[in-house]
Amino acid sequence: MLQNSLSIKKQTEKMITSYAKHDTVTFTRSFGSVLRSILDFNMYTTQAGSLDSSGPITAESFTGQSPSPDVPKWERQAAMDAKIAYAREAADKKVEEMNIHWDDKEQKVAFRMDHDKLQKQKARHGHDVRLAGDDYSWSLVNYILAPVGFTIGGLGALPSDTDGPTCSKNANFFRSYTLAGFKLKDEEDPEDDKDDLLAIESYHRAGSYVDEMGVKCTSSINGTLNKNYWSSFFGAWYTKLPVNLAYNAGFMWVDAINYIYYTPETLEDGDWAYFVSYLAGDFSIRFFYHDPTPQRVNI
Fold first, then answer.
1. Using an 8 Å Cβ cutoff, are 202 and 181 in contact?
2. Where are the domains of the chain?
3. By the 8 A CB rule, do 120 and 158 touch?
4. Alpha-carbon distance 87 to 200, whole Å?
5. How do residues 76-114 score in pLDDT, each as one tens digit?
6. Residue 94: count of CB within 10 angstroms of its CB
7. Tens digit of pLDDT for each residue in 119-163?
8. How far is CA 259 from CA 115, 121, 227, 263, 266, in A?
9. pLDDT of residue 7
């Protein structure tokens, strides 16, 4: 009993000190220790509860079994927080490995490929290289996420003062985390549930971008590509279409060159389905919209 009282006194002093320092972790741990000392008190473990001079009557000698101490709630919560933090870090790493960051069109045309490998690829497959081969096959997930890639390319081409680029970024994070979750499920070890936790965390983080993606994409369409814009465009398409092509000729040329020269092996992340969907969205929007703001490059 005296030992428990001293423990309570010591932990209470820690609580007071940590409260003054705003140390919530130490405060919570000390508070849990106080509760444990109060609630887990066992009279059989004290000298005062024994009349036998040979020693105290313990719970083990009384029942014949060793009691299994309950893990405090704060310890269980700390362990769970550590697992979640690890899962988030691993999921972010997967997304970073899979995600292609293209800051501008000039970087897209900086062909990050081995020229000799490209020539071997062409010699092996010929001109029909994009129509055959397992590397160019699309999975069910690719078909489901293809509209997302199209949206990323299409709305990402809108001016920076609209919500189009923000919509594109949120959609890209949604796609990347979703693919990371599927990849973790495919690589799952039956004897280890860590991959399940990582996959669930990836899906959770993907879902966190859905609301922002919906708001920004809707705003960009209603504010830029609304009904009035399309009525104006189709009302004078024979003059507006040539203007759009003149403004966007360079961007469309880059898209075409990228599609011709890149392969799944030379792509940064090998995600051919997303690459094609992205280029299709970017290329298509150029027919119907152009940004009249002058594009200046700092040298």
1. yes
2. 105-288
3. no
4. 9
5. 667 766 776 776 676 666 666 655 444 444 444 443 333
6. 20
7. 444 444 443 334 333 467 788 888 888 899 999 999 988 988 889
8. 16, 14, 32, 8, 11
9. 72
Higher pLDDT, 85 or 278: 278
Give the phi and the psi of residue 52 in degrees, each rounded to 5.
Answer: -90, 120
Which has the closest alpha carbon to 260: 135, 118, 75? 118
Query: What per-residue confidence (pLDDT) applies to 4?
Result: 65
The sign of the CA dihedral 53, 56, 59, 60 is negative
Average pLDDT over residues 229-239: 92
Is 254 in contact with 108 (CB distance < 8 Å)? Answer: yes
The string of pLDDT tens digits covering residues 45-56 is 444 333 344 444
Question: Is there a contact between 32 and 74 (Cβ–Cβ < 8 Å)?
Answer: yes
Residue found by looking up tokens 């997967």 in the block: 94
Question: Which of 58, 55, 36, 54 minimizes the C-alpha distance to 45?
Answer: 58
Per the structure block, which two tokens stand in for 244?
């759009």
Classify the C-alpha dihedral 11-13-14-16 as positive or negative: positive
Reference 69, options 25, 39, 28; nearest CA is 39
